[in-house]
Amino acid sequence: MLKERVYEIIEVSPPGDLTSRVFVVFIMTLIIASTIAVMFETVESISSRYRSFFVLFDAFSVAIFTIEYILRLWTITASEKYRRPILGRLRYAITPLAIVDLVAILPFYIPAVLIDLRFVRVLRLFRIFRVFKLGRYSESLMTLGRVMRAKSAELAIILFVIAVLLVFSSSLIYYAEHDAQPKAFPNIPASMWWGVVTLTTIGYGDVYPITPLGKIFGAIVAILGIGMFALPAGILASGFSEEIRRKQENI
Predict the structure, then answer these.
(1) DSSP class per residue in 113-145
(2) Which of 96, 151, 206, 213 could form a disulfide with 239 if both were Cys (CB 3.0 to 4.6 A apart)?
(3) How far apart are CA 41 and CA 38, in angstroms?
(4) CB–CB of 24/135 below 8 Å?
């Protein structure tokens, strides 16, 4: 049947299927091209000179993405998981990839029914969401997604610990430096900027401690930052190792 064949082309992408391969390459190329167009459209000298091209290309890409989105909603009932005509399509529509597909095209249509031009300008920024559609067609990005899901609990713990450390270090540096630098460290929330750049070991140098106690705190926080931000890398590396081993076992 036609629906099953279309579903096979756009969702299953079986190995050796030339039509499916052409479709994937075409969509990936269009995603990359439209994302590049969005970026170059922010360059005034280029945007003013090729405005009509950007408008036409945006309309073309949105038309293709819209057809793709509609086809996915139509054919998704061919999947056993979304077999029910209405409920199945609704369940599919709230999946992360389907939401990304929708967000990628909505900014083109919504301005037609809006009056506030400032809000329209903000919506235009959401066109950059098209780049996330690549995750549907890239095996590497899909692998990254599986690793992130598998290690989500460990990553959440690390992020929580980093957040606690950020608040703690910002509070300490505020009490150590506020009297000496009331403008640089006026309150704890403002001191979090110093905490972020120090924990990430970036150290822009725009805000830094000058008191002996503040320098001691700064050194400790910088050392802790090296260790804390190395932990997520280790967790992800472990996850990739497990994912590669699982793939090899399934071959």
Answers:
(1) G---HHHHHHHHGGGGGGGGGHHHH-HHHHHHH
(2) 151
(3) 5
(4) no
Q: How far apart are CA 89 and CA 174, in angstroms?
A: 53
Rounded Cα–Cα distance for residues 175 and 59 (Å) = 55
Tokens (6 digits) for 114: 């809006």
- H-helix or E-strand spanning residue 88: helix 87-93
Find the length of the chain.
Answer: 251
Q: Environment class of residue 139 by beta-carbon count within 10 Å: exposed (0-12), middle (13-18) or buried (19+)?
A: exposed
Cβ-based neighbours of 173, under 8 Å, separated by 6 or more = 185, 191, 194, 195, 209, 214, 217, 218, 221
Its pTM surpasses 0.90: no
Q: By C-alpha distance, which of 245, 191, 198, 194 is closest to 224?
A: 198
With 0-12 / 13-18 / 19 or more C-beta atoms within 10 angstroms meaning exposed / middle / buried, residue 76 is buried
Between CA 206 and CA 89 the distance in angstroms is: 52
Give the mean pLDDT per block of 10 residues along the chain (251 residues): 84 78 86 83 84 90 91 89 87 85 81 54 58 66 78 85 88 90 89 89 85 90 83 82 78 61
